[in-house]
């Protein structure tokens, strides 16, 4: 029987790449995000992709989404992102709130809503797209690192609480991935600054590299739980150790 995978934040970047990749793997993919036109374009690429509008920051939207999706085998909590790079001393409360709202509470809302369906599938898989920012802290990363640490902690807690249930809890923590929008959002739309992040780095990861790893993790046999997978480009040995040419 065809399995259903829900991917949030599917309108661009890692989310869109994951929706494409899981559709190729034979999943029926519900591609969810706020920007419906982008989802429609994505769905036109593959008959296995169904577009659905979703705002993970709205309980009403999450409830309506849940009511419209009868079964779920895989949930990829990918919606997230960073806003601003100010030091903690000058960080904007609204930015911190936004990052917590999307990365932590957005993933929480989706998890709470869809968990019963994941469990009743008999082999549910929940994937949390966190970040290396959930494992280390770095200057300017304050609000994003705090939110990603929160999401990482929530993922670990879920795995403990759900042991014995037929559901796997998988964390994928990417390092430097060059996508269309991540750095652009972080620099509030300043394309030049966003581009500089990857300047001279021989090969930052692409969204497809991360989608590849997600596909691998969710297609392991039911008893194999990949707890956490950290993926960085070869040129990034650690957060502050990046090879540039
Ligand atoms: C993105 C990776 O290093 O910019 O989640 O925090 S990093």
From TrEMBL:
A GO molecular-function annotation: oxidoreductase activity, acting on the CH-OH group of donors, NAD or NADP as acceptor
Keyword tRNA-binding belongs to the record: no
Keyword Transcription regulation on entry: no
Highest taxon, organism lineage: Bacteria
Keywords (A to Z) from UniProt: Oxidoreductase
Matching InterPro entries: NAD(P)-bd_dom_sf, SDR_fam
Similarity field: Belongs to the short-chain dehydrogenases/reductases (SDR) family.
Name assigned to this protein: SDR family NAD(P)-dependent oxidoreductase
Source organism of this protein record: Herbidospora galbida
């Amino acid at each position: 029987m065809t399995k259903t995978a829900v991917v949030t934040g599917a309108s661009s970047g890692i989310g869109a790449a994951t929706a494409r990749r899981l559709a190729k793997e034979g999943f029926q993919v519900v591609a969810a995000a706020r920007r419906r036109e982008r989802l429609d374009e994505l769905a036109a690429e593959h008959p296995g992709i169904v577009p659905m509008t979703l705002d993970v920051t709205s309980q009403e939207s999450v409830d309506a989404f849940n009511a419209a999706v009868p079964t779920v085998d895989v949930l990829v909590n990918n919606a997230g992102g960073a806003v601003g790079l100010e030091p903690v001393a000058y960080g904007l409360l609204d930015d911190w709130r936004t990052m917590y709202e999307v990365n932590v509470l957005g993933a929480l809302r989706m998890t709470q809503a869809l968990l019963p369906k994941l469990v009743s599938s008999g082999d549910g898989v929940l994937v949390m797209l966190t970040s290396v920012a959930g494992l280390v802290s770095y200057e300017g990363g304050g609000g994003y690192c705090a939110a990603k640490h929160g999401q990482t902690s929530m993922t670990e807690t879920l795995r403990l609480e759900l042991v014995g249930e037929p559901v796997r809890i998988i964390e994928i923590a990417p390092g430097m991935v060059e996508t269309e929008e991540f750095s652009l959002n972080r620099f509030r739309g300043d394309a030049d600054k966003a581009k500089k992040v990857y300047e001279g780095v021989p090969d930052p990861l692409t969204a497809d590299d991360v989608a590849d790893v997600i596909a691998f993790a969710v297609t392991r046999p039911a008893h194999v739980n990949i707890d956490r997978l950290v993926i960085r480009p070869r040129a990034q040995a650690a957060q502050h150790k990046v090879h540039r040419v």
